[in-house]
Design goal:
single chain; about 180 residues; alpha+beta; two-stranded antiparallel ribbon; 4 helices; about 30% helix; globular
Length: about 180
């Protein structure tokens, strides 16, 4: 075999190995919009309620926060935002998206964690984590990237946008578009 052909074959083989090595490990999880859906797939009432409540508690800490309802609804859709329990530094209200569901993982393989899930205005079909990782549309058992199951980071900064013609003053902005 000519040297140039063997070099090409080695390069192709190395490229395939690199692509395979970059593919992320998937873990088993379950995603639900309600406790009833969870129970319908054979999980116990206790498991479903405990995971839902854990996701609700986490939701307050990790959901994206906005200084106006309009800004929140720009990312999550009309009537998909609520007043957050904390206030801005100037005493105004803070807004966050409604929790669209929860990922349950504490009793499933792979060490996945329970966490709240959201749906963006531009991609209502898919669930997203608080860190804006798209994890799929299926309700029920699913495999998701292991990195998407890590505990979301706690964000306390809020988003503030300027009006027409003024500069945006965002301190933390996550786009939830598709």
């Amino acid at each position: 075999m000519k040297r140039s052909k063997s070099v090409k074959l080695v390069a192709m083989g190395t490229g395939l190995l690199l692509v395979a090595a970059c593919e992320e490990t998937k873990v088993d999880t379950a995603m639900f919009e309600s406790v009833q859906q969870c129970k319908g797939l054979g999980f116990s009432q206790q498991e479903c309620v405990a995971n839902y409540e854990a996701a609700q508690k986490m939701h307050v800490d990790v959901a994206p926060k906005y200084t106006s309802r309009t800004d929140c609804e720009a990312d999550f859709g009309a009537q998909q935002c609520q007043v957050a329990p904390q206030k801005t530094t100037t005493g105004g209200s803070v807004f966050m998206p409604l929790m669209a569901g929860y990922m349950m993982g504490s009793m499933l393989s792979g060490g996945a964690r329970t966490q709240p899930l959201y749906r963006s205005r531009d991609d209502r079909a898919n669930f997203r984590t608080a860190d804006n990782r798209k994890i799929g549309s299926a309700v029920g058992r699913a495999q998701v990237a292991k990195s998407a199951t890590k505990a979301p980071s706690v964000k306390t900064r809020t988003v503030s946008r300027g009006g027409f013609g003024s500069a945006a003053r965002a301190t933390s902005r996550r786009s939830f578009g598709g």
